Give the backbone structure.
Amino acid sequence: MAVSADGTSILWRTGTGRILVSGTTAAFTEVNSLPGSSVIAADKKDAKVFYGASGSSFYVSKDAGWTFYRSGTLGSSSSPFKIAVHPTTAGDVWVSTNTGLFHSTNFGATFKAVSNVSQGWDIALGAASSSGRYPAIFAVAKVSGTGGIYRSDDTGVSLLLLKGDDVFTHFFLDFVVQNQ
């Protein structure tokens, strides 16, 4: 589920492979312009903007989730897993996929792949390392051949391994891979 920045629109991916949208008090309506398998997110700054990703395609809605258009591509990805959205900058999005991590600063029109990341299973933005800086990026990913949990304080230029070759990480990574 994704909720607009002002709380007036809800986008919901059901367990039966449908994407539904509802405004303020309206009933849910099916969104036919977005594949039912899409991962979804809402922009945190612009209440009219929602995002979706399916296969290698990235989709954007600028009418509060009612209609989507294909905006950009995620390299050769076939499975996007999560969309993370910057908390204060409209159009700044990250996507974790089976082929790596991707970043866009223009509402998904273009994406830049994060170097040395061959798989990205999860991604989140957290508190910046110091006031006024870009949020920290946390990812469960395979970087330069090593799977683990990583942090970046420089928009993905460098990735610091936080958890790697221990029992927890192997269990987690095995679970994620088996459940793709």
In short: The chain has a mean pLDDT of 91. Helices lie at 167-178. Residues 167-178 form the longest helix (12 residues). DSSP finds one helix and 16 strands in the chain.
